[in-house]
Amino acid sequence: MSQANAPIVVIGTGLAGYNLVKEFRKQDAETSVIMITADDGCNYSKPMLSTGFTKGKSASELSMADAGKMAEQLNVTIRTNTRVTGIDADAHTIFIGEEAVAYSKLILAAGASPVSVRIEGAACDHVFAINDLQDYANFRAELDSKKRVLIMGAGLIGCEFANDLTNGEFKVEVVAPSNQLLPCLLPEKAAVALQKGLEDIGVKFYLGSLVNRVTEVEGD
């Protein structure tokens, strides 16, 4: 296949990937597009992940459309649960294991990966990073019959989850190395006001501290 006839390849079916293709289709309804994603390709709004407990939404209820519906809507091919293992930019080719896929243009819309937290202890498999819809589904499953949640980090997402989980009737505690909430976003007075607001609904804060070990105990 010549480069001119090769499809456009988009790696990633998150908000950036899907929105880019939606805008492209407004200009070009026919050019072949292949979207490749490591997950199931469901279309969802990532900010909704930190409001799901307040709204009582499961992962499937946060999904707006599955990969099949998105492929039909956008007139694209979507390869789900697939990882790109190599890119040869000179040859305009990506690799999925041994399979080579030619492209005319390549868009990287894979998003960011969460930072791995180095923590000791036998309960590390109960530590979750919620970065996509599947992470949210796994987290909700873990919380079945549980009442308490510890959040590591007092940034924007940490505070959103603290509020969301408290609204979902969980007992929430937040541990963070910073001395205030949202240290990169809020002046001190605003951070104090935010902290008080969250404390008033039951959130407990342990600021200036780091989690270094996680162990399992009986109870909730």
Radius of gyration: 21 Å
Strand content: 15-25%
Number of strands: 10
The geometry reads as: elongated
Strand order of the largest sheet: 3-2-1-7
User: Which spans have pLDDT < 50 for at least 5 consecutive residues?
Assistant: none
Give the end-to-end Cα distance, rounded to a whole number of Å.
59 Å
Computed structural class: alpha/beta
The biggest sheet, with number of strands, parallel, antiparallel or mixed sense and barrel status, is: 4 strands, parallel
> Can you count the helices?
7
> Helical content, roughly?
25-40%
Overall pLDDT level: 94
N-to-C SSE series? EHEHHHEEEEEHEHEHE
Describe the structure.
By secondary structure, this protein is an alpha/beta fold. The protein contains seven helices and ten strands. The protein has helices at residues 15-27, 52-55, 59-62, 67-74, 133-142, 156-167, 188-200, and strands at residues 8-11, 33-36, 77-79, 86-88, 93-96, 99-102, 105-108, 148-152, 171-176, 204-207. Strands 3-2-1-7 form a four-stranded parallel β-sheet. It has a three-stranded antiparallel β-sheet with strand order 4-5-6, with no helix packed on it. Strand 5 (93-96) and strand 6 (99-102) form a beta hairpin. It is elongated. It starts with 7 loop residues before the first strand and ends in a 13-residue tail after the last strand.
Please describe the topology of this protein.
Elements: E1 8-11, H1 15-27, E2 33-36, H2 52-55, H3 59-62, H4 67-74, E3 77-79, E4 86-88, E5 93-96, E6 99-102, E7 105-108, H5 133-142, E8 148-152, H6 156-167, E9 171-176, H7 188-200, E10 204-207
